[in-house]
Amino acid sequence: METNLIPVEDICAYHHVEINFIQSLENFGLIHTTVKKQSLFLPVDELTKLEQYLRLAHDLEINLEGIHAVSHLLNQLQNMQEEITALQNELNYYKQLNQHH
Amino acid sequence: MDYIDYYKILDLKKDATTEDIKKAYRKLARKHHPDLNPNNEEANKKFQQINEANEVLSDPEKRKKYDKYGKDWQHADQLDAQQQQKRQYQSQGGGYGGNSYSGGFGGDDFSDFFSSMFGGGGRSSRNSPFKGQDYNADLQLNLLDAYTTHKQTLTVNGKQVRITIPAGVENGQKIKLPGYGAPGVNNGPPGDLYIKFNITDHPRFKRKGNDIYIQEEIDVYTAILGGEKIVETLNGKVKLKVPEGTQPDATLRLKGKGFPLYKKENQFGDLYIKWQVKLPTNLNVEQKELFEKLSKF
């Protein structure tokens, strides 16, 4: 078994969550799982995302449709934050030029 | 250690029902949940307060103790002892058991007030694994530090963390180090460490994305007649040819002599050199005559 794959069964036992929930997240395109030897696995780099969705469902009682919407908005937020940082850095460059003159 | 008004935190009246508490908690948790407020330390702190308030007020036993002592919580043990003595005087035996709030909650994201009143750190009621708290740290680098990949040791919450900083990090960029946050609760995974880079400006090299801009002085004779100029770049000195008739503010681009691209090996931005033509001052009589002669051509 590849070390960067986690059996979904283990995740379900650890987080006390039904496998259906994870399959539904996949159906919504929110995570990607892999089937190997008839077992379902989650790539390690998908774990943080999955745990975030589990927290949203558990802590805030957000349903799958809600998680889908939240995930989309969080991605937009992240892109905007990156854009703001890039713009701030560019603005800083022009400020430095003004100080120089 | 100050008294914390849990009712105020959840915006509730003292006679709030269990349903009111649940509703208020859900409402505020939706607003301040760390997953909905990435990189927002203020929201994170607020969410911890809301959790703590909910932990106390949603548990009838804890709420009873909290309501009973209120602002006198620091003297709770003394008050208990006094009441016990009173009872012993009034009736023989009947020893007052009091409420025993043992610790063993684990985790460290609850206030000192909570720990002192209820022991431990909370979150026992659900007994489910929780990811540890994420840590945030700011790291100041100068521009030249950010130019090369290097290792640096940081102290985060008393622990030494050695990290590799890839060349080309941007000012304001955040990187995540999974598992370097606070330990998990109830066998939950540890939190993550987020490091934000603050890159200080350099007096000579100005960065815009991956390109670097500098200004270089040349005298009027080199500008007019052409010549050579040794220019210091980020990775050493280079000898440049100044073409004849170079105008003030003319810009020269040196491809691949700028800043390294983040996590892209051997890829660099460009270096732009703006020529600043320095005019001579305090000319002597002979020089003035020569310029006058020139001006008549």
TrEMBL record, chain A:
<dbReference type="Pfam" id="PF13591">
    <property type="entry name" value="MerR_2"/>
</dbReference>
<keyword id="KW-0175">Coiled coil</keyword>
<protein>
    <submittedName>
        <fullName>MerR family transcriptional regulator</fullName>
    </submittedName>
</protein>
<feature type="coiled-coil region">
    <location>
        <begin position="70"/>
        <end position="97"/>
    </location>
</feature>
Automatic annotation (TrEMBL), chain B:
<dbReference type="InterPro" id="IPR036869">
    <property type="entry name" value="J_dom_sf"/>
</dbReference>
<dbReference type="GO" id="GO:0042026">
    <property type="term" value="P:protein refolding"/>
</dbReference>
<feature type="region of interest" description="Disordered">
    <location>
        <begin position="79"/>
        <end position="100"/>
    </location>
</feature>
<keyword id="KW-0677">Repeat</keyword>
<dbReference type="InterPro" id="IPR001623">
    <property type="entry name" value="DnaJ_domain"/>
</dbReference>
<protein>
    <submittedName>
        <fullName>J domain-containing protein</fullName>
    </submittedName>
</protein>
<dbReference type="InterPro" id="IPR008971">
    <property type="entry name" value="HSP40/DnaJ_pept-bd"/>
</dbReference>
<feature type="compositionally biased region" description="Low complexity">
    <location>
        <begin position="79"/>
        <end position="91"/>
    </location>
</feature>
<dbReference type="InterPro" id="IPR018253">
    <property type="entry name" value="DnaJ_domain_CS"/>
</dbReference>
<keyword id="KW-0863">Zinc-finger</keyword>
<keyword id="KW-0862">Zinc</keyword>
<keyword id="KW-0479">Metal-binding</keyword>
<keyword id="KW-0143">Chaperone</keyword>
<dbReference type="InterPro" id="IPR002939">
    <property type="entry name" value="DnaJ_C"/>
</dbReference>
<dbReference type="GO" id="GO:0051082">
    <property type="term" value="F:unfolded protein binding"/>
</dbReference>
<dbReference type="Pfam" id="PF01556">
    <property type="entry name" value="DnaJ_C"/>
</dbReference>
<dbReference type="GO" id="GO:0005737">
    <property type="term" value="C:cytoplasm"/>
</dbReference>
<feature type="domain" description="J">
    <location>
        <begin position="5"/>
        <end position="70"/>
    </location>
</feature>
<dbReference type="Pfam" id="PF00226">
    <property type="entry name" value="DnaJ"/>
</dbReference>
<dbReference type="GO" id="GO:0008270">
    <property type="term" value="F:zinc ion binding"/>
</dbReference>
